[in-house]
Write a structure and sequence with these properties.
- The protein has 356 residues and is of the alpha/beta class.
- It has a single domain, classed as Luciferase-like domain (TIM Barrel), CATH 3.20.20.30.
- The protein has 12 helices and 11 strands.
- The protein has an 8-stranded parallel β-barrel, surrounded by 7 helices. It has a two-stranded antiparallel ribbon with strand order 5-6.
- Helix 7 links the parallel strand 8 and strand 9.
- It starts with a strand and ends in a 9-residue tail after the last helix.
- This is LLM class flavin-dependent oxidoreductase.
- Pfam families: Bac_luciferase.
- It comes from Streptomyces silvisoli.
C-alpha cells in the first residue's frame, strides 16, 4: 500500500486567501516528497468555495513540479468537457516535460450543473464529451498526424507538440463516483482508477473494485498492473479528542459548502446522472460519527488511523494507493504539517513504507 496527498480546497475565501492556500500546498508537497509519498494531486472546480481555488489543476501542479524531483504529479481530475482536447492534451504534455515524466492524468466527467451552465455545455452531454475527450488526448499523445472527427470536435491532421516524455503517453486514470459499469469500462480500456469511498456504500465500493479488476484481467492485462487510487480525508493528532474535533468541524464545513455547490440539482435531472436530483437530501443526512465508524473518513491518533487503514487494506487489497487529504477545510498549516509528519513517522511504516 502506497500513500499520496490529495488537495481539495473547500472553504470560504474569508477563511484563507488563495495565495495562502497555494503556499501551503507547495510546502506540504515538498514535505511529502521528503517523506517518500507516492504522489500529489488536485481537483478541477469553478466559481464556489467548493473547490473553486483550483480552476486549473495543471497550473498548481506545474508549480509543485518545479519544487520537487521524484514525487508523481497527478490530476485528480481534469474535466475534458470544459477544454478543447488540443489545448488539454498540449497543456498536459507540457507538464509531463516540465516534471520529467512524472505525470499521471486523471480524467473526470464533472457533476455540478452550475459548472456546465457556466461553460454553456448541456450536462446531458457529459458522458459523451468525457469519452471523446479522453480518447482524443490519448491519440494526440501517442500518434502523429492525427485527424479527429468526433461528435463535438473536428481537427487535423496534426502532430501534437510537445510530445509527452512518457511513451506512449502518461498513465491515464478514470475518476468514478459510484458506477461499477464505468469502473468495468476503465478496466477494459486499460485505464487506471480513482475512487472516493465516502460517497458510496461499502458494498458498492467492493462491486466497483471487483468490476474493474475482472474487466482488467478479462482484457488480458497483467494482474495487479491496474493502479487504484482511493481518496480519504485524514484528521491525525497525538490527542484523539483534537483529531475528532477537527473531523467534526471540517467535515461539516465540507458538507455545508458542498450543499451550496449542488443546490441546482434540486431543479436538474439528467439521464447521465441517475439519482443525483436526490443528492442534496443524501448529503444533508451526513453524520461524522457514522462515517468514522464506517471508515469513510480517517480520524484519531496514529494507532487508530493505522487500525482503520489495516481494515481498509483487508477490504480493498494491499495494491491500492491511498490519497490523503491532510489539509482539509481551513485547517491551520502547522496542524496539517504536523499531521503529515505523524503519518509518515507512525502510520506509513506499518504498511511497508519505511521511507514515508
Amino acid at each position: 500500500m502506497e500513500f499520496g496527498l490529495n488537495f481539495f480546497p473547500v472553504f470560504a475565501p474569508e477563511r484563507k486567501t488563495a495565495a495562502e492556500y497555494y503556499r501551503e500546498v507547495l510546502d506540504l508537497s515538498v514535505l511529502a516528497e521528503r517523506h517518500g509519498f507516492e504522489h500529489v494531486q488536485t481537483v478541477e472546480h469553478y466559481g464556489s468555495p467548493y473547490g473553486g481555488y483550483s480552476p486549473d489543476p495543471v497550473t498548481l501542479l506545474t508549480a509543485i513540479a518545479a519544487r520537487t524531483e521524484r514525487i508523481r504529479i497527478t490530476t485528480g481530475a481534469v474535466i475534458p468537457a470544459f477544454t478543447h482536447p488540443l489545448k488539454l492534451a498540449g497543456k498536459l504534455a507540457m507538464l509531463d516535460n516540465l516534471c520529467g515524466g512524472r505525470l499521471d492524468v486523471g480524467f473526470g466527467r464533472g457533476f455540478l450543473p452550475d459548472e456546465f451552465d457556466w461553460f454553456g455545455i448541456p450536462i446531458d452531454e457529459s458522458r459523451r464529451r468525457f469519452t471523446e475527450g479522453v480518447e482524443a488526448c490519448r491519440r494526440l499523445w501517442s500518434e502523429e498526424n492525427v485527424t479527429w472527427e468526433g461528435e463535438f470536435y473536428r481537427f487535423g491532421p496534426i502532430t501534437l507538440l510537445p510530445r509527452p516524455v512518457q511513451n506512449p503517453h502518461p498513465p491515464i486514470f478514470v475518476a468514478s463516483a459510484s458506477s461499477p459499469e464505468s469502473c468495468a469500462q476503465a478496466g477494459t480500456d486499460g485505464y487506471h482508477l480513482q475512487i472516493v469511498p465516502s460517497i458510496v456504500s461499502h458494498e458498492v465500493m467492493l462491486e466497483m473494485l471487483d468490476s474493474y479488476r475482472r474487466s482488467w484481467a478479462a482484457a488480458g492485462r497483467p494482474a495487479g498492473a491496474g493502479r487504484v487510487q482511493v481518496k480519504y480525508t485524514c484528521y491525525l493528532s497525538e490527542d484523539r479528542a483534537q483529531a475528532l474535533e477537527w473531523g467534526e468541524r471540517f467535515e461539516n464545513n465540507y458538507i455545508d459548502l458542498m450543499t451550496g455547490a449542488i443546490a441546482s440539482w434540486a431543479a436538474t435531472t439528467s439521464a447521465d446522472y441517475k439519482g443525483y436530483e436526490k443528492l442534496i437530501d443524501k448529503v444533508r443526512t451526513y453524520d461524522f460519527t457514522k462515517s468514522l465508524n464506517d471508515h469513510k473518513v480517517l480520524a484519531g491518533t496514529p494507532a487508530e488511523v493505522t487500525e482503520q487503514l489495516t481494515a481498509i487494506r483487508g477490504w480493498f487489497g494491499d495494491d491500492i494507493t491511498v490519497s490523503l487529504q491532510l489539509n482539509p477545510g481551513y485547517m491551520p498549516y502547522e496542524d496539517s504539517r504536523r499531521a503529515l509528519e505523524l503519518f509518515a513517522d507512525h502510520v506509513a511504516p506499518h504498511f511497508g513504507n519505511a521511507d514515508v
